[in-house]
Design goal:
The chain is mainly alpha-helical and 141 residues long. It has one domain. The protein contains five helices and two strands, in the order H-E-H-H-H-H-E. Helix 2 packs across helix 3 and helix 2 runs antiparallel to helix 5.
Length: 141
Amino acid sequence: MRVAAGVTLLASALAGPGCSKAVFAPQPPGGGTTLTLDFDEFQHNVEPVLSARGCDAGGDCHGAGIRGSLELSPESAKNAHFDFDQVKLQVSAVAPASSAILREPLALAQGGTPHGYKAFATTSDSGYVAILNWIRHGVRS
């Protein structure tokens, strides 16, 4: 009985003035930038870079033995729609050059992030530029 009275007293003290009625959580923030990327441009300009640089699922890096957050289809069963959906997840709508699809395979000395394979030595590499342009051509809303 004494414990119940203490809990009631504590609850009353915590409620304080202005807290006697239910409070609803605020709505989550809305808006933000969304990016619609072009599949055809991906298929013609980005997918060939990924394949040529060995970033498709030929090994165990981005395939069945996936390590990390990017999974790509193997060269023997190329699925451009699957790859497109996966690569879109690696893109920053707000800061294209900060996209994981660009920073992870970029040399550390050029601003890249840790990654087992560095496909791009510099930001002027033609493959890097092709992917960056694809992101920049996306429609922001």
